């Protein structure tokens, strides 16, 4: 019973933070990330936030190109070319 309660409490805490997450995140490198859309597709935070909610540890160009682009290739969905994510023209 204690284990079930602990699991439910952890799930509640983890899922509650998803609702506090921004719908869209704009990065300085002209990338607009539709956070809400990705949550709808994956159904969980842990796909990207493997160490917990909040900023992704180690996030940067290499991480994004490996994980984001890698997921898009694997799922055969989403942009995989530079201009698919990076919008240099205003």
From TrEMBL:
Binding residue positions for heme c 1: 68, 71-72, 82
Cofactor note: Binds 4 heme c groups covalently per monomer.
Binding site for heme c 2: 85-86
Signal peptide start and end residues: 1-20
Cofactor(s) demanded: heme c
GO MF annotations in UniProt: electron transfer activity; heme binding; metal ion binding
UniProt xrefs under SUPFAM superfamilies: Multiheme cytochromes
Keyword entries, A-Z: Electron transport, Heme, Iron, Metal-binding, Signal, Transport
Name used for this protein in its record: Cytochrome c3 family protein
Species in which this protein is naturally found: Oryzomonas japonica
């Amino acid at each position: 019973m204690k284990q079930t309660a602990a699991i439910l409490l952890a799930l509640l805490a983890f899922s509650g933070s998803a609702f506090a997450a921004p719908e869209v995140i704009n990065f300085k490198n002209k990338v607009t990330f539709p956070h809400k859309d990705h949550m709808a597709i994956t159904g969980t935070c842990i796909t990207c936030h493997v160490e917990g909610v909040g900023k992704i540890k180690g996030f940067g160009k290499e991480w994004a190109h490996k994980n984001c682009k890698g997921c898009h290739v694997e799922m055969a969905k989403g942009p995989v070319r530079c201009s698919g994510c990076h919008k240099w023209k205003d």
